[in-house]
What we know:
The chain is an alpha/beta fold. It has helices spanning about 10-15, 40-55, 85-100, 115-130, 165-175, 205, 220-245, and strands at about 20-25, 60, 105-110, 135-140.
Amino acid sequence: MNLADLxxxxxxxxxxxxxxxxxxxxxxxxxxxxxxSTDSMLTGEIVRRAEATLGDRALFAPLLWLGxxxxxxxxxxxxxxxxRVYVDMLCGLLDNFITHGFRRLLLLxxxxxxxxxxxxxxxxxxxxxxxxxxxxxxxxxYWNLYDKTSPPHPDLKQTWMGHACEWETSMMLRIAPQxxxxxRLVAAQEPGTAFEPAFRGWTMTDRSEHGxxxxxRDATAEKGEALFQTFAxxxxxxxxxxIDWDGTSWQDKRRD
Length: 256
């Protein structure tokens, strides 16, 4: 179900155990060959597919296109919410639906920069309602939700999600090829390591002059379709686990 299509009595009539999914993405640079809307377009397509499969078993809020993208601000066109503002905004969304009585909430993330503030929002809301044992509060980044025992496509060269990389470029070639410039002319930009296992603060220009990480040259629409199918199934599996949650236990059904 799409929240935007419902009336308030429709929402009031829903079971309060219905999972509510808040898709969050970004509007930021994606190298020289990809549109600024990439993260939001890809997340929106995954949501469309997952919603079609789940039907009225889950409620999907409209996609939030503004993300925490300060690390891309050296590149013109990027729009970003300040990290603290972004955490507060996500907390507000979760708090809204807890106020409406819903108990199973998911921030479905489609941008790497939203991971830390998203987790912080989940943490803060859990502390705010620390006496509530019936709340299930989750953040899931779509490219981390699939079964990693086999690759989404046998011809993928990358084994990880980068930025304007083989994976994202393939997905954009599948849904909006007219927005992708010639990716075959883009040089590879490997992710490298930086003082691991410590975490180093960074901006995109520290890692990439042109704003991409990975190698988009081998991207194809066929790979993009395989990635979409894989990622959408991962989202559906997580939401089905939310549906099946018994309302009290720590683990989900996959850990039983």
